[in-house]
Design a protein that fits this description.
By secondary structure, the protein is an alpha/beta fold. It has 15 helices and 24 strands. The strands form six sheets. Strands 2-1-11-10-12-13-14-15 form an eight-stranded mixed sheet, sandwiched between helices. Strands 4-3-5-6-7 form a five-stranded parallel sheet. The longest helix is centred in the first third of the chain and has 18 residues, at 41-58.
């Protein structure tokens, strides 16, 4: 026997319809082209309908992929909703990837159209000849701010949009239709595509809007300091409209002074982003002595906040900090460290220690930790194991990798993280698999860094580890063993790496050793390097010779 409730598909444009109906005049502030664009949910829906109509006129069809290379702006949101409104798939591309990776993900996705901020036009001009599937480039600006460019069929967004009148109705299709495509950072080889459905996006947005997660309301003014290209924008482009929260979209203005100006001018109550962004805000507040009059809650993801950051925001500025955890494959949010009746009375160091944990899973996210044999381990805050997760918003295989079943026999996905969980369900990441380096919330592959270093003719062997950094949480530390009778300096190695890797991947220090530690099987023993040199960037004088 089936229930008799209406069969109502969970589609992304239903979120925008709700926002435009119930919260039409709720403000949206967007920074673009060095200007503030002031709009609201009603106007956002009208323009998203025009995007959908214009995409269809362009010849885009359901299932086609549409690339975006852009910061968090209202125009970027219009493109997402417009694309999903015709059954197409938005594909946010991370501009922090190096050129070969951007080329790979665009070609792997077979994107047909590229929407880009003007600031990324020079980047695209360098690789456009390698992107044969892109039929047209649309620069997210008006005619007055449109740069001169050689990009194929380039046009400014406002002129492109002016070709239609918005007399359009959303398409109808199954809720399991693909809606968004996000790629991993390629830290263990080629980036892998995670394909979200309308259903998974709407379900996740509902889940993370619970009180113990983000808990947005129509009374909140939410600033999205997390870029939309980073892990599906933490789903905030859907969660905030769903709740009717006002939005502040800072675009590329993520420095401390700009963020403070936006927070105070628009009375922001909630924001979220990686620790590096908030350290910049703290530094600005310390330099100027300015207060935070309106900000109440700050969500931090990518890596946990330091205790100094927790204390500064909470004790000096009265801003509650909530550490969150997730990954592209999780849709992307998995946990948030909100307090429970058992923990709400903790004080001092005990409370700060708890707040550095990644937190508890909400409804629709299940977690377990297992040993190397796959045996489930207890939640006793002692046992440490591989963290696995499952749920309706979590990946089951990667895009265009038909043989990539990534689930165990119970349907759990291996996150690649090592964790422990206490009796109250608070999870803490204790290590990262595959020796990744997480700098300012972005991954750096130690393997790629090592392999690139070893392309220098004077290098016999190389190893890279994550070293503690006061601003970026972790930065690469590179170890080099020279070939016999070869002379190689740090400056020469940096010059070699600079032409082959993104600038932010370059190591903060290079140490030359006579030999590197190895295991009995000949593998690099990075644990020994981390134990000895993990604090080198903060206390170089205390490192053993």
């Amino acid at each position: 026997m089936l229930g008799l409730a209406q069969d109502w598909p969970l589609l992304c444009h239903k979120v925008l319809d709700h926002a435009a109906t119930q919260h039409a005049r709720r403000k949206i502030v967007s920074c673009a082209d060095d200007q503030l664009i002031l709009t609201n949910y009603g106007q956002l829906r009208d323009r998203a309908l025009r995007v959908a109509q214009r995409l269809q006129r362009q010849g885009l069809k359901p299932g086609d992929r549409i690339a975006t290379l852009a910061a968090s702006t209202v125009r970027h949101m219009e493109v997402w909703y417009g694309a999903t409104g015709i059954g197409a798939v938005y594909h946010p591309v991370n501009p922090r990837l190096f050129h070969d990776q951007i080329t790979f993900v665009v070609n792997h996705a077979a994107d047909r159209v590229m929407f880009t901020d003007a600031q990324y036009v020079p980047l695209l001009e360098k690789i456009a000849s390698k992107l044969p599937t892109i039929e047209r480039y649309i620069v997210l600006s008006d005619a007055a701010h449109m740069p001169q460019t050689s990009l194929r069929n380039a046009v400014d967004y406002e002129s492109w949009l002016d070709e239609v009148d918005g007399d359009y109705a959303w398409a109808h299709f199954d809720e399991n239709t693909a809606a968004g495509l996000s790629y991993t950072s390629g830290t263990t080889g080629r980036p892998k595509g995670v394909l979200y459905s309308h259903r998974s996006i709407v379900l996740l947005s509902l889940t993370i809007n619970a009180k113990d997660m983000y808990g947005f309301s129509a009374r909140d003014i939410v600033m999205m300091a997390v870029p939309m290209f980073h892990a599906n924008g933490w789903s905030w482009p859907f969660t905030a409209p769903m709740a009717g929260a006002s939005l502040v979209l800072p675009g590329a203005r993520l420095d401390g002074a700009s963020l403070h100006e936006l927070i105070e001018a628009h009375q922001v109550t909630i924001s979220g982003g990686v620790p590096t962004v908030w350290q910049g805000l703290l530094d600005h507040l310390d330099r100027t002595g300015l207060p935070l009059k309106h900000l109440k809650r700050l969500f931090i993801g990518g890596s946990p906040p330091s205790r100094a950051m927790l204390a500064a925001f909470q004790e000096r500025h009265g801003v509650e900090i909530i550490n969150a955890y997730g990954m592209t494959e999780m849709g992307p949010t998995g946990t948030a460290c909100s307090l429970t009746p058992e923990t709400q009375n903790l004080q001092g160091e005990a409370r700060l220690a708890l707040q550095q944990r990644q937190g508890r899973a909400p409804f629709l996210v299940e977690m377990k930790i297992v040993d190397d044999a796959g045996n489930k381990l207890p939640w006793n805050d002692v046992a440490t194991g591989n963290l696995r997760v499952r749920g309706p918003c979590i990946v089951r295989r990667y895009y265009r990798m038909e043989d990539s079943n990534v689930l165990d026999e119970q349907g759990f996905f291996d996150t690649g993280d090592v964790a422990k969980i206490d009796k109250n369900g608070f999870m803490r990441i204790t290590d990262r698999a595959k020796d990744l380096i997480k700098s300012g919330g972005e991954w750096i592959s130690s393997i790629d860094l090592e392999n690139t270093a070893q392309t220098h003719p004077a290098v016999a062997e190389a190893a890279a580890i994550a070293a503690v950094h006061p601003k970026w949480d972790e930065r690469p530390l590179l170890f080099i063993v020279r070939k016999p009778d070869q002379d190689l300096s740090s400056d020469q190695m940096v010059s070699h790496l600079s032409t082959r890797l993104p600038k932010w991947w370059l190591p903060d220090a290079i140490l030359f050793l006579d030999e590197l530690p190895h295991t009995a099987t000949g593998k690099l023993q990075k644990t020994a390097l981390r134990e000895r040199y993990g604090n080198y960037l903060v206390s170089p004088g205390k490192t053993p010779k």
